[in-house]
Amino acid sequence: MQNRLTVVVVEEDRDRATGIVDALMKTGDCDVYVIGNYTSLARKIAEHAPDIVLIDIDNPTRDTMEELTLASGPLDRPVAMFVSGAAGGLAREAIEAGVSAYVVDGLAPERVKPVMDTAIARFSMVRQMRNELAETRRALEERKVIDRAKGLLMKAKGLDEDAAYALLRKTAMDQGRKVADVAEALVTAAGLLG
Predict the structure, then answer these.
(1) Are residues 87 and 103 in the same domain?
(2) How far is CA 95 from each of CA 62, 111, 192, rounded to the nearest angstrom?
(3) What is the rounded distance in angstroms from the CA atom of residue 56 to the CA atom of residue 64?
(4) Do residue 121 and residue 147 come from a single domain?
(5) Are 55 and 80 found together in one domain?
(6) Distance between CA atoms of 61 and 66, rounded to whole angstroms?
(7) How many CB atoms within 10 Å of residue 71?
(8) Last residue of one domain, picked from the residues 82, 106, 132
(9) H helices of 10-160, where?
């Protein structure tokens, strides 16, 4: 994230929105935009391409929470949600949907900055874990394809496992491709021929 943050505040109450904006402006490192109603919320948020979204809502219902969560794009950016009171199991649902911070007892202006910093840190950590998980899954899928390709070569050419892998690796080097790409092509061709 850059030094100066773009913050979108979703708040229907004008006085509360003013208090939040004032608290954020005191930090001196934010550009703040307020969205006062939920109509076309996703489009309005996207127009500002914020670094973080702060949502203040009095009594969230399950439907409202779902709509706000989807519109604010919690997988794209940190989202901090402030609610006035405990709302049953909605906290868990909000966190599972990707909300970075779920704060009960409303949004007090003096708590905005620390909660925002926490939401950004948590979002960064979760994003890194998601990226690592995606990379691990990709590597596992590549490994499976390479193993299948080795099996095909072992059966077709009577090679042992090391020789089959060596042949895949040599072919990949000769063609300037990744071993996984050569293995994928071999498995696909075998499927077509087989």
Answers:
(1) yes
(2) 13, 19, 45
(3) 12
(4) no
(5) yes
(6) 9
(7) 21
(8) 132
(9) 14-27, 41-48, 62-72, 90-96, 112-157
Are 103 and 39 found together in one domain? yes
First to last CA, the chain: 51
Burial class (CB in 10 A: 0-12, 13-18, 19+), 118: middle
Q: Side chain identity at 154, as an amino acid letter?
A: M
Domain match, 119 and 63 both = yes
Element (DSSP H or E) covering residue 81: strand 79-83
pLDDT tens-digit readout, 56-96: 877 666 676 777 777 777 778 898 888 876 656 677 777 77
Structural tokens at position 17: 């929105």
Domain CATH for 156 = 1.10.10.10
3-state SS assignment for residue 91:
helix
Q: What is the CATH number of the domain that holds 116?
A: 3.40.190
Domain total in the chain: 2
The answer on 123 and 138 residing in a single domain is no
Residue 194 scores a pLDDT above 80: no
Alpha-carbon torsion angle 163, 166, 167, 170, nearest 10: -160
The residue with tokens 């500002």 is 48
What is the domain extent for residue 164? Answer: 134-193
Query: 32 Cβ partners below 8 Å, 6+ apart?
Result: 7, 8, 9, 20, 21, 24, 25
**Using CA of residue 134, residue 137, residue 138, residue 139, what is the dihedral sign?**
positive
Question: pTM score, two decimals?
Answer: 0.71
